[in-house]
């Protein structure tokens, strides 16, 4: 490995071969380390800004745009389909190689005319030798008395000059070929003609063919005042030389055949450029398809007419929806919700649409949109735009300056984002993704659980259905620590993962067993799981609590044996009960007295989502079970406690993550389930890493945001990067964090060109004199270039590049979809 992160393949995978001495090519695009201009002009397909004085509603085209453009942006076909992961559909520009709006480079423009001027001069000098054919544009350079008039119509002027005519034609052909080869004429033809669609391309080719024919056969075009190019006469002279005279030209058929051959030779290049034959075959195939009976030509219908419903025979429902769309009574959320219901195969689809029209299957909250949008969303593709891919050497052509977007297809493989405080993780990534998932929840296609960091809630309160404010007395909801579980072993495994999953000194399996030995007997007696304060007393071995529970289970032999086993292990070396009790003490503080079943409450099954209510406390908080997101498209936000309870906040984050892994395994769920952790510090454990790998097959995903990889145990760095499919490195990370990304993204083979200059030592006296004169004039010795092209293995992004070359407001992002498609790590501008 070299110091720049490359490995030389010379002698192993590649054989260095001397190449022509040409300078190495440099990428014409902006390198990844150079930030793009802050102001990006609008592109074709982007939603227009709202007109002044007109009401507007949020929509897929961007915040504040008119309602009509909202539905149009969703219903109309995009300019280009999402062909690659992470490419924003609306406003997507084709790669530069396929665009026709580019301007030719100044060097290319000069290359169009300089060879032409040189050709005119050479032709003029050639003609000064007395050769017999006229070319009107060259009369500026040649006296008129040097020109001999003559065409095939007057062969008397050509007799005896056949050889000179042939030489004239050969020189003209070589001159034209050299002009086209040395100049930029092929680039100009591809730029102005080759990239245009039919039939414009065929018409341009036809126009060029007519212009060329007017120079070859000027007498066939009325009003043309120039002389013929030396094409026809040299060919006829060559035939006359071979045949020994002009007697063959007396035959009109022979003469016309030669004229036909010349015409075909002139037109043939323009036919290739214009694509006449493929265009003709396409038109003939379309005519045959239209002429065949019973196969009418397909008619493209706009999405506003709901063609998928009409194809299935649901014409009445399609008419109702089309009328609502036309009248502006449906927004993009309504359209996506109805489309999702149709794709889900609702048995009462027709009756519900005829009865409720665009308001069918409204979210249980009654909301049909968010009160405020800050991002740009495409609910048809389940995407949210986060920025723009930066065109660079590493980026494929399809990603150059295209919009960067995240959707459920990539979030289903989970995403890990690492960046220091102030790098913009929350503002540019977490908040837009949370808003997009909340919108998709209104369509019935997604369930969202967002865990906010202390003091910075994600989104407005009106954008969520359930808000759990841990430690806030005004909170309406409480969090069920057992996630509505009925099985004591399952509840114990979830709670053990949250309490001691990050400890190396306690075995998670033994901790789950110790909890199950207490949860089972308590549930058998009370019909519910114990509140966390009561559970802490049992784990600490409080004699009064254990005696009361043992007396209550005296008639149940199985539960009595479970409790006796726990009593025997209490206080023994290696007992996990003490560590579990110490961790529960973090949640048994006065600030959390009314939460987690405290204050004499109930942690059992009941209330919202199957959690327990608290009849003893007057229902101060309604317990919420995270299991509800597995059955309903809910929008849930959990606000961590304020400053002073950092360790408790991390424990709650681990609890939510462990519960999420458990509840998404429920069968029968058709919607996508997403968990967003604004601060995943201390939440990643060995058990959670194993469960993250299974989420993509369970139609679920997690977004993890970290300030540094050091917040994760070092033994879990590799498994964590391997468990997630999407990885994002923000600007400002350290080289230690960058090394983890560099190892995960691996290396690639690239071709490098090395140019070495060697001094030329001449042997002959004359050559040495010329070299000395050249050195005296230029000040440099005469050298020759030795070019070596080789393949080297280079890191896609080295740790140093990630730490020092990612500009502020940018990030390096790699994506993987649930179908296995992937995008390499590319630089994305998050400022737009």
From TrEMBL:
Alphabetical UniProt keywords: Membrane, Transmembrane, Transmembrane helix
Residue spans of biased composition, Pro residues class: 17-53
Native source species: Streptomyces galilaeus
Listed Low complexity bias regions: 54-69
Protein name stated in the entry: ATP/GTP-binding protein
Residue intervals passing through the bilayer: 104-126, 165-182, 203-222, 228-246, 258-279
Region (Disordered): 1-69
Secreted found in the keyword field: no
Record-linked InterPro entries: P-loop_NTPase (IPR027417)
SUPFAM superfamilies tied to this protein: P-loop containing nucleoside triphosphate hydrolases (SSF52540)
Highest taxon listed in the record's lineage: Bacteria
